[in-house]
Amino acid sequence: MDASVPESHREWMRLALAEAAQAPVTGDVPVGAIVVDAGGVVIAARRNERELTGDPTAHAEVLALRDAAAAHGEWRLEGCTLIVTLEPCVMCAGAILAARVPTVVFGAWDDKAGASGSLYDVLRDRRLNHRVEVYAGVEADAAAKLLLDFFGDAAHRPA
Questions:
Q1: Which of 7, 45, 92, 113 is deepest in the core (most CB within 10 A)?
Q2: Residues involved in catalysis
């Protein structure tokens, strides 16, 4: 356990994991995201909904950012923290930067599409006008287990 990760981030990650666990009900990959405001209040909680909605942009992070902006009353989510169970992809990293989210906490690494330190590091790219503080690998084993269980089950489902 990394002592540099605040306990609140771990607690919030457990909420995101609970959200992610509901995604397979609709056939969606179990990824969950929450947004917490500067006061520590959860203002958005979403999960992947690409299969449910047929929307290729319906990643948990994008949906949570949309809801958070509505709850926050503006698109700039300065002072907020995004917690997501899987390392954000390039699309989600772009949305995070556009929303000016200062802090991202993620669980499992995504070596195939990650844009927050594994394949790319969009969130901390010094060439961009906004950089994000990233806490990586928080509750990573639990997040990875959700994904492994889902894809393991998917591989064994009858056609």
A1: 92
A2: 61
Q: Which two tokens stand for residue 75?
A: 């698109």
Reported as a single tens digit per residue, the pLDDT across 10-24 is 999 999 999 999 999
What are the φ and ψ backbone dihedral angles of 118, each rounded to 5 degrees?
Answer: -90, -80
Is the pTM higher than 0.70? yes
Q: Residues 6 or more apart from 20 whose CB is under 8 A from it?
A: 30, 31, 32, 47, 48, 60, 85, 143, 146
Q: Which two tokens stand for residue 30?
A: 């179990």
Query: What are the average pLDDT values for consecutive 10-residue runs of the chain, which has 159 residues?
Result: 82 98 97 97 98 98 98 96 98 98 98 95 94 96 96 55
Tens-place pLDDT, residues 63-77: 999 999 999 999 999
Beta partners for residue 116, in sequence order:
121
Give the E-state strand segments of the chain in sequence order.
Answer: 32-36, 42-47, 81-86, 103-108, 133-135
The pair phi, psi for residue 131, each rounded to 5°, is -125, 150
Average pLDDT over all residues of the chain: 94
Count the residues in the chain: 159
Helix (H) or strand (E) holding 52: helix 50-53
Q: What is the CB-side half-sphere exposure of residue 128 using CA atoms within 13 A?
A: 14
